[in-house]
Design a protein that fits this description.
- It is a single chain.
- The chain has a single domain (about 1-195), classed as Aminopeptidase (3-Layer(aba) Sandwich), CATH 3.40.630.30.
- It is about 25% helix and about 25% strand.
- The chain has helices spanning about 20-25, 45-55, 65-70, 110, 135-150, 165-170, and strands spanning about 35-40, 80, 85-95, 120-125, 155-160, 175-180, 190-195.
- The chain has a seven-stranded mixed sheet with strand order 1-2-3-4-5-7-6, sandwiched between helices.
- β2 (about 80) and β3 (about 85-95) form a beta hairpin.
- α2 (about 45-55) packs across α3 (about 65-70).
- The protein starts with about 20 loop residues before the first helix and ends with a strand.
């Protein structure tokens, strides 16, 4: 994990230096110790796009959107690799938005993202189908919690599909409120989940 000695934001956001003991502290957070988790690079985006397409199909983010999210908050866009292969990733932004009010606009995350905000919102977490139930997602959640604390966030938020709620509950997220109109997916319930970082 030596290649992940610093996290930084791309574009207009200020440089962010991670403490020098990052690898040792971070390794203790991992639920799957054989993973390498760190900030995504620009070269990772095409691979992330392919994985997102496998998971979400036509509803997945396109390359332009994924690249914009990476540029928006590179420190909060993490990949998980096992033996060099991408097995999962997580995207996030910092914002002050109060859910459950939500407008699914293409630029809603980048227009609301603000360094110094109290909430780190998880935009998406994805794991390759053949790597699920091995601690990848829980390791990514532990990692993004660490990033949130480094940026002074007070809470993590995510909107979860009902079948994913056990993952968040195992990471000490609590249900806040149902969001039935979050995405137009029939027969899927959505719940706003929240985890305190204090």
């Amino acid at each position: 994990m030596g290649g992940y000695a610093s996290l930084f934001n791309i574009g207009s956001q200020s440089f962010f230096e991670v403490p020098k003991d990052f690898p040792a502290e971070f390794d203790s957070l991992l639920r799957a110790p054989d993973l390498e988790i760190g900030p995504a690079s620009y070269e990772d985006i095409a691979e992330i796009y392919r994985l997102e397409n496998e998971i979400e199909g036509d509803d997945g983010a396109d390359l332009v959107t994924l690249t914009a999210r990476w540029r928006m908050f590179g420190a909060g866009f993490l990949t998980a690799r096992q033996d060099g292969c991408l097995v999962g990733y997580i995207e996030s932004c910092l914002w002050d938005r109060r859910l459950p009010s939500f407008e699914a606009q293409p630029d809603c995350f980048s227009s609301q993202h603000r360094i110094g905000a109290e909430t780190l919102y998880i935009i998406f977490i994805g794991v390759a189908a053949d790597c699920r139930r091995r601690g990848v997602a829980s390791s990514l959640l532990a990692a993004i919690s660490w990033v949130g604390r480094c940026y002074g966030a007070r809470r993590l938020q995510a909107v979860s599909r009902d079948h994913v709620m056990p993952l968040y509950e195992a990471a000490d997220f609590l249900p806040v409120t149902a969001m039935p109109d979050f995405l137009p997916e029939p027969a899927v319930n959505f719940m706003l989940m929240e985890h305190s970082l204090l």
